Amino acid sequence: MPVLPARRRGLLAPLILAVTVLYAAAAAPAVPAAAADEPDWTAAPAAGGTGSARPAFYLAGAPGTVLEDRLALDNPSDRERTLTLRGADAHNTADGGLAVRPAADTAGGGSWISFGTAATVRIPARTRAVVPFTVTLPPAALPGDHPAAVVAAEAGGREAGVRVHLRVGGPALAALTVEDVSVRGRGARAEVGYTLVNRGNVTLAPGLSLRAEGLLGTVPGRPHRALPLELLPGQRVRLSEPWPGAPRLDDVDLTLTVTAPGAAPASARASARLAPWGTAGWAGAVLLVLGAAAPAALPLVRRRRARHGPPAPAEPVREAGRTPDPDPDPDPDHELTGATR
To answer: For 297-309, b where at least 16 C-beta lie within 10 A, e where not — what string?
Structure first.
């Protein structure tokens, strides 16, 4: 059996060791990625009388009523957790999402939520705690929806919010308007921007449709579809709608119509000049049309002149009782000959 020189054996040893380590790492079982992403604790509505899970709290009552419910806190980790609980007002973000206000800005339905002495809870490892809370509706509370949330927070750690659908009894008004319609882009990349405003006192689930008229008739718009958002009372959001059927060159009138259950349809209109090169493109298109029409018009003018002949010279207008002036010199430009005249 051949024997490698000592120098070659010294060079191969680190290479063999590296290959062995890489093989062992590849053969080792991988740690599931979900395990690292699992939260240390969770907050959710406690199961109701039927034992089924609830995605949020749903509470309603007349002004002056005290409502009750329970929050479930699960701590699957290996150490104790200390959580602080509070109520918060819910609101729409600028683009239609849902968020909760900080404690200092909570003055609506969130301020009616109380955990009493259980505002701070210690949860042992691998333990589930159920914490009761109350919602006291003020006697002067206005009817309609008052969006709120229950927030659990760990000092220096994460926060978790649970939605509270809170309604005060009384007349319900669903009212929706659409404003500030505009168009960005053209063709398949066109978008229609618009603003939705909830002018009523109940939460709305709006839908939208788009109709467009061009210079040559109707162009593809957008059929009615439900929007993936909840518009809270008194909220204003700025949204955009893809318009893949927009023409690349046209002058269009848009009609945007929004609807919501219980609310009257609302519409807004806008005009847009779509051109591949913006304003310069429109100017160029007009010049091209005029340039194409001019050669076609010249033969018509020539044929008309040939048919009717040149226009007759206009006769001079003479004043009544005045003798006509003698004929002017037919040759006002005299030849310079040096002869005496």
So the answer is: eeeeeeeeeeeee
Q: Report pLDDT digits (tens) over 66-115.
A: 999 999 999 999 999 999 999 999 999 999 999 999 999 999 999 999 99
Q: Does residue 114 sit within a domain?
A: yes
Q: Which of 249, 277, 305 is the last residue of a domain?
A: 277
Give the tokens for residue 116. Answer: 């009493």
Q: Domains in the chain: how many in total?
A: 2
195 and 142: one domain? no
- Domain residues for the domain of 246 are 176-277
CA distance 317 to 325: 12
C-alpha angle 253-227-191 in degrees, rounded to nearest 5: 40
311 burial level (CB within 10 Å; 0-12, 13-18, 19+): exposed
Q: Do 60 and 167 form a contact (C-beta atoms < 8 A)? A: yes
Asked if residue 146 is part of any domain, the answer here is: yes
Token pair for residue 24?
């062992």
Cα torsion at 282, 284, 290, 291 (round to 10°)? -160
Q: Could you report the per-residue pLDDT of 148-206, keeping only the tens digit for each? A: 999 999 998 899 999 999 999 999 999 999 999 999 987 888 999 999 999 999 999 99
Beta-sheet strands, E only, within 35-185: 42-45, 57-61, 66-75, 81-92, 98-100, 113-114, 120-123, 127-136, 144-145, 148-154, 159-168, 176-184
- Residue type at 337 in one-letter notation: T
Q: Which two tokens stand for residue 217?
A: 């008739």
Among 189, 176, 194, residue whose Cα is nearest residue 242: 189
Same domain, 187 and 265: yes
The structure tokens listed for 35 are 């395990």
The answer to the question of residue 326 being in a domain is no
